[in-house]
Amino acid sequence: MISELIGIAPHLSLPPFEYRPLMSRKAKMSTQPSTAQYLLLARGTHWDKGLSSEEIQKLMSRAHAWFDRLSQQGKAKGGQRLANKSKIVSGKKGSSVTDGPIAESKEAIAGYLLLQANDMDEAVEIAKEWPLLEIDGMSIEVRPVVSDMPTGV
């Protein structure tokens, strides 16, 4: 659901989000124009605190319209809301496992969207249109997806 993608009030009823698998690298190379993929990381938690149900619904309608437009244009390729609980694995061979993310963190990743865009500038312009950016504490990080993993690592 789009509400899950952007980490919003799960009690609102919104149409389900349709996941579309990505094309294989070979198919992409032969059929896609010269575009790149970008990961939009939605950051911010508890964004809906202090908003009325009506305000939340208005924002959600606008977020739905934004996402639907991107999907119709073939730019939104998939995405999901992320759970508030996680484990952070670090150290050599995962020697340290801690709970995360820090619940109070404004930088916690609430969800992601895989975007197809011509370049970073277009991806940033699309991200700027995200309706939840009107709320203090919300942000979107735009990162290019690297198409090939390094070999011999």
Describe this structure in words.
Helix content is 26%, strand content 25%. The protein is α+β, with helices and mostly antiparallel strands. The chain has one domain (2-9, 34-144): Dimeric alpha+beta barrel (Alpha-Beta Plaits). A hairpin with a 5-residue loop joins β3 and β4 (96-100). The radius of gyration is 17 Å and the shape is flat. The chain starts with a helix and ends in a 9-residue tail after the last strand. Mean pLDDT is 77; it is low at 8-32.
Features:
Alpha-Beta Plaits; 6 strands; 26% helix; 153 residues; two-stranded antiparallel sheet; alpha+beta; four-stranded antiparallel β-sheet
Overall CATH class? Alpha Beta
Query: If helices are DSSP runs of H or I spanning 4 or more residues, what is the number of helices?
Result: 4
Task: Based on Cα principal axes, name the global outline.
Answer: flat
Beta-strand content bin: 25-35%
Mean pLDDT: 77
Examine the secondary-structure arrangement and name the CATH architecture. Answer: 2-Layer Sandwich
Strand order of the largest sheet: 2-5-1-6
The percentage helix is 25-40%
The count of DSSP E runs of length 2 or more, i.e. the number of strands, is: 6
Rg, rounded, reads 17 Å
Order of helix and strand elements from N to C terminus: HHEHEEEEHE
How would you concisely characterize the structure shown here?
This protein is of the alpha+beta class and 153 residues long.
Task: Explain the layout of strands and helices.
Elements: H1 2-5, H2 25-31, E1 36-43, H3 53-72, E2 76-81, E3 86-90, E4 96-100, E5 109-117, H4 120-128, E6 139-144
Antiparallel strand pairs: 1-5, 1-6, 2-5, 3-4
